[in-house]
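=== RUN LOG ===
request id: a7f3
mode: sequence -> structure
chains: 1
length: 587
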Amino acid sequence: MKVLYNDGHIDECPADEVTHVVRHSAAHIMAQAIKRLYPEADFAYGPATENGFYYDIDLPEGQKISEEDFPAIEAEMKKIVKENLKFTTFELPREEAIALMQERGEKYKVEHIGDLAEDARITFYQQGEYIDMCVGPHLTYTKALKAFKLTGVSGAYWKGDKDNKMLVRVNGTAFATKDELDEHLRLLEEAKKRDHRRIGREMDIFMMRDEAPGFPFFLPNGMILKNELLSYWREIHRAAGYVEISTPMIMNKELWKTSGHWDHYKDNMYSTIIDDEEYCIKPMNCPGGVLVYAAKPHSYRELPIRAGEIGLVHRHEMRGALHGLFRVRCFNQDDAHLFVRPDQLTDEIVGVVNLIDSVYEKFGFTYHLELSTRPEDSMGSDEDWERAESALRVALEKLGKDYVVNEGDGAFYGPKIDFHLEDSLGRTWQCGTVQLDFQMPINFDLEYTDADGSKKRPIMLHRVCFGSIERFIGILIEHFAGKFPTWLAPCQVKVLPVSEKSRDYARGVTEKLEAAGIRAVLDERDEKIGYKIREARSVDRPPYMLILGEQEVEAGNVSVRDRSNETHARDLDEFIADVRAEIAERR
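=== RESULT ===
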């Protein structure tokens, strides 16, 4: 594919940039179509994104764009594509650029120019009557846009600042080919079916209430799911040499100033006054873990100390950013803080990575690793950061793991290794992390006594496997579409008597399952068996259904229907033994 760069030359587009260029050009074509349909529309930002593109638009009072308007906008876009308009580019000095945008009534572009560096090049792209300030590159002709779709409309503040005007954001996506677009739209439709908010409601896993925005309520089925995850977490951490601690949810402001969180994170923290002193509700568990370490002296022989904590943390999120379990204001974080000697550092990082790897393998996730380096807003010396980043690189190389470097995305106290999971729809989620921290041991003057009697500073590792338990549950709901592995499923066996004649037998079967530690639910309503099966499949989503009629009563066995929808006659005791083994092994 040929593309036009902002210096005027045309060249072949690198393969890994084709989708981005197509989407960027689609954004311009969409803006041109909207301008034709809404001549008084004023345009702000309109970039390509990881999943598509959008444009933020200021419409006159009384005008609006909704999804009902998408067919008309898409039709106008197709018309522009058919016109096969040529993309051209030009550059202007700052004053001429401002004059051009003022002449065209583009007040947001004028403001954007004012935000650019004095020596910035100001380039424009044009197709037909439409001109946009842009760095490009773009397609050479509009006809090269083969496949696009508008996907949604929402509100967005200018420059993301809530004090600025709310604009209309029109979202879309585009691909180089129609087949790619069709596959993307199929995955979007599948994602809608798997939406954890809908499935969570249907399966009675969690709920949200206006009385507590961003603070999830876990229902009985959700508590089963959460407790099974935490039981698994505790089991594997005990085996890996971790101890478990619990630290207070509220601690005074001075602690958070010492840790550095107050200076770097105060806008996301809740606080309260106790005894005329300011206290903070913890957004992280680490300072509490540090206080536990500092409570008594330590010898080099005790290290490494691996202290895990499933701590409830609170973070202030903007209400408009809240999204089911994915973005909440309180959540349980499966933290662990490791205090290690320098000679133990590489092996401990390797151990953490291997532990997290085993967790993701259990759920069928693949992942890729990113090494996130020093951000602009950081604390500590250049030497400490170089040592910390080097230690993480050495551990990754020892593991033989591929990774990419994510420049400037580390925590304020140290670099980190992030795990990006890929779910069953190919979406990625950042969950696990390993963070190396030289700063907090300095801030809190942590020590241990070395073999020669001298005082040494431990190195601190922060790490999570699940990350936010709540968010991980949301990911699992969508990954499995609510059809959890047997060990996690809130309802492991649904018992379905065909009629009143088999109801007493079904009650006995249910009691025997429950006595064996299997979570069984009996549906003895006077409903047709076909209806019961369909409802169980779409609501409870159990791994197994037992369909019990007169034939099963006479034979003293059970008819087992699994998720393949095949039904087999089984001896009840053998079925129970198999399910118990499946649960015990967490298959």
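=== NOTES ===
The first helix runs from residue 18 to 37.
The CA atoms of residues 252 and 275 lie 11 Å apart.
=== END ===
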